[in-house]
Amino acid sequence: MCVFCGVTAPVSHLDRALANGRGRVKLVTGAIWGDLYQIYPSAREAKLGGGGVGGPLRFLHPSCGTKGWRELLCVVMATWFFKYRAGGGVAQGRPRVRLDGDLRAVLLEAPGRCVPYAVIEGVVRSVKETLSSQFVENCKGVVQRLTLQEHKMVWNRTTHLWNDYEKIIHQRTNTTPFDLVPQEEGTGVTVRVMKPLDAAELSLETVYEKFHPSVQSFTDVIGHYISGERPKGIQETEQMLKVGTALTGVGELVLDNTTIKLQPPKQGMPYYLSSVDFHTLLQKQESNVRFWKILTVIFGFATCAVLFFVLRKQYRHHQERRHLKQMQDEFRQAQERLMHEMNMEGGETLKNACVVCLSNTKSCVFLECGHVCSCSECYQALPKPKRCPICRQAISRVVPLYNS
């Protein structure tokens, strides 16, 4: 019985299944897969061992009602991780269920007669008729894919180079129902594979491949150079999933009446039908995830750097605007104070005051515009090229103004 969800499974069936090493099914739920994946990908191969009600912990289901089962599982996985890093490694034994009555009994005890995510290994066997290769004699299979691919060279107007271009002009896929059976001959249950074309990875073997080069005349060559497209030929390919191929299926395992089916998971998990073993498939997915992790870290640092520079630029802009506003306020206050003092002294001084500083009297005539608006100190402080503060014309020369 599962210590988390309380699902009872016959101990005798499980022990017998673990005792023999034939056709194996690894039962891994979607939620547990995610937790194991986040902590350490290689720990997914570890044995969930060590006591509990009903023997070793072999089957977990997302519908468990215990609130802290994920946390407990994370602690166990972390312990395995440190043991693995220390050199002890992970346990090599994994739950194995033979393709016989034990598998049917396990599914009968599972909630809804369904395992959300299961890994099963077996040999391909057709249910009814097999598909024959169109080009290879005595080649039988259950999935056949015929592809016609066009190869040509296209002129790149930007780089001024001829680039290879490939395009699938025709593709047809034929399927026939097939099962996964134990590798050893004998009595045993079969697993019906449903919707094989929906698999994210469907391993097909290339049994025939031929390239038909295009025949071109001199006028065709000239026309191709003018149009910017040079056809190279047509590649004809035939791929098949042969009968007797060892296949690893990853998906949802259900018991429908008397038929055990492997179908695409309903929880959005990937569906695999691969010719490699489970260990190789895990390593491949781990390498892909490692690449995406590195890419995520790189883009994370890049995003943080861009955000830092943007925020720093905004902060500096805010500081400049604040300083400019402060200077404007101070200038306005000084201007008001000066205006008040001039009003107290009289209007004559205000009339001849410099328009820039409003303190000194006007003492410069700007040519060629002829404006009298600034004192000599403010004229010297004007930025180069010097322009009139009134009309913004260029100042060619300055004539001193003497007030009597």
UniProtKB/TrEMBL annotation:
Its EC number is 2.3.2.27. It catalyses: S-ubiquitinyl-[E2 ubiquitin-conjugating enzyme]-L-cysteine + [acceptor protein]-L-lysine = [E2 ubiquitin-conjugating enzyme]-L-cysteine + N(6)-ubiquitinyl-[acceptor protein]-L-lysine. It is found in: Mitochondrion outer membrane. It comes from the Eukaryota. Keywords: Coiled coil, Membrane, Metal-binding, Mitochondrion, Mitochondrion outer membrane, Transferase, Transmembrane, Transmembrane helix, Ubl conjugation pathway, Zinc, Zinc-finger. One of its GO terms (molecular function) is ubiquitin protein ligase activity. The chain crosses the membrane at residues 291-311. Pathway: Protein modification; protein ubiquitination. It is a multi-pass membrane protein. Its main location: mitochondrion. One of its GO terms (cellular component) is mitochondrial outer membrane. PROSITE patterns: ZF_RING_2 (PS50089). SUPFAM superfamilies: RING/U-box. The keyword Transferase applies. It holds the Pfam family zf-C3HC4_3. PANTHER family: MITOCHONDRIAL UBIQUITIN LIGASE ACTIVATOR OF NFKB 1. This is RING-type E3 ubiquitin transferase.
